[in-house]
Amino acid sequence: MQKWIFSGVLVIACVFAIVLMFTLPGKEQVAEQEKPTMPEVTMDATAAEATIKAQSCISCHGDQLQGGVGPNLQKIGSQLSAEEIYTIVTKGKGGMPSFKDKLKSEEIANVAQWLAAKK
């Protein structure tokens, strides 16, 4: 009787392991989640400013991007690349929330390029 129970548990464990092998994300998927890929866009400063105002970025970063609750962004382009800014805005960092569900990736890329040009 115990052999049958042990055999059943072993079979269930093997089936569970096989299911996990095919459903868990691979290294490529995990890497993509860690560092999202910035789409190619042509920077539109007017649209970037409108996005920043519409998303209330100024409530933390100030109306002149001088900082406040969030860091000063007036010369952020001298510290971070557009891709790094894109990743931060997309995923969030520290006290900054993620905007991946609030903005299209093209909008985030436009804002990232606009901020990266501020040196």
From TrEMBL:
It comes from Paenibacillus dendrobii. GO terms for cellular component: membrane. Residues 43-119 form the Cytochrome c domain. It holds the Pfam family Cytochrome_CBB3. One of its GO terms (molecular function) is electron transfer activity. Binds 1 heme c group covalently per subunit. This is C-type cytochrome. Signal peptide: none annotated. Keywords: Electron transport, Heme, Iron, Membrane, Metal-binding, Transmembrane, Transmembrane helix, Transport. The chain crosses the membrane at residues 6-25. It comes from the Bacteria. Heme c binds at C57, C60, H61, M96.
